[in-house]
Amino acid sequence: MKRSEERSVSQVPRPVLGLLVIAFCLQVAWQALQPKPSARAEALPAPATPAMLRVLSLNEPVAAAQLLTLYLQAFDNQPGISIPFRDLDYRRVVNWLDTILSLDAAAQYPLLMASHLYAQVPVETKQRLMLDFVHRSFLEDPDGRWRWLAHGAIVAKHRLNDRALALRYAEDIARFAHTAPNWARQMRIFILEDMGELESATILLGGLLATGEVTDPNEIHFLTRRLEQMKNAEKSSPMSKN
């Protein structure tokens, strides 16, 4: 239609304009009365089987493992909502971590997530699930995974107050992790001593960083930041001010 043929608003019959105004007002009122949209947390789905993931990744299991790790790591931040770790289905999380390791047995990040992130929630049953996963994974590759069980021993002693479990982990490191440094193989000594969590963690994390056992830049950054956070928390705690 040409511009000259367009009708101006003044030429539109008043009854039609009235109906349009009423319709517009009703639309605005309807939208105003609707409840505000709220983000809902989606449950963590079960991971695909390793065999299926190998096929989907065109037989690139390491790449598939990295993608699964990124997905799991970001799952707690869904659009419009942040899910606390304690609200996740931890048995499902363990399934994801197991799947990732089955695709890339050399991966360390799943064990880091298990021991330093998921095992920190103040829910004993979930902490024990993560520690059991770390211990089971350690037994599959003691020389490659001892550092995560070492941290699990600290969690068992200071978070769960389960010295027997912590000592069991430390003794397994001494028994099976033949290439672990002496300080790690002697963890049972300071577990039996009355050390605080910060002191124990400083020995463990400081040893990891000083001896070069951790080489991945992301892991080094994470562990360094974690140690600093623990030190700051210790300084700001009421006990440290007495």
At a glance:
The protein has 242 residues and is mostly helical. Helices cover 65% and strands 2% of the residues. It has helices spanning 14-33, 50-56, 61-74, 90-103, 109-117, 124-140, 142-158, 163-176, 182-185, 187-192, 197-211, 217-236; strands at 77-78, 81-82.
Instruction: Pick out the low-confidence regions.
Output: 1-6
Q: What's the average pLDDT?
A: 80
Largest sheet: 2 strands, antiparallel
Q: Level of helix content?
A: 55-70%
Query: Going across the major beta sheet, what is the strand order?
Result: 1-2
Query: How do the SSEs run, as a string of H and E?
Result: HHHEEHHHHHHHHH
Question: Can you walk through the features of this model?
Answer:
The protein is mainly alpha-helical. It has 2 domains: 42-107, no CATH class; 122-242, no CATH class. It is built from 12 helices and 2 strands; from the N terminus they run αααββααααααααα. The protein has helices at residues 14-33, 50-56, 61-74, 90-103, 109-117, 124-140, 142-158, 163-176, 182-185, 187-192, 197-211, 217-236, and strands spanning 77-78, 81-82. The protein has a two-stranded antiparallel ribbon. A hairpin with a 2-residue loop joins β1 (77-78) and β2. α3 packs antiparallel against α4, α5 (109-117) runs parallel beside α7 and α11 runs antiparallel to α12. The radius of gyration is 28 Å and the shape is globular.
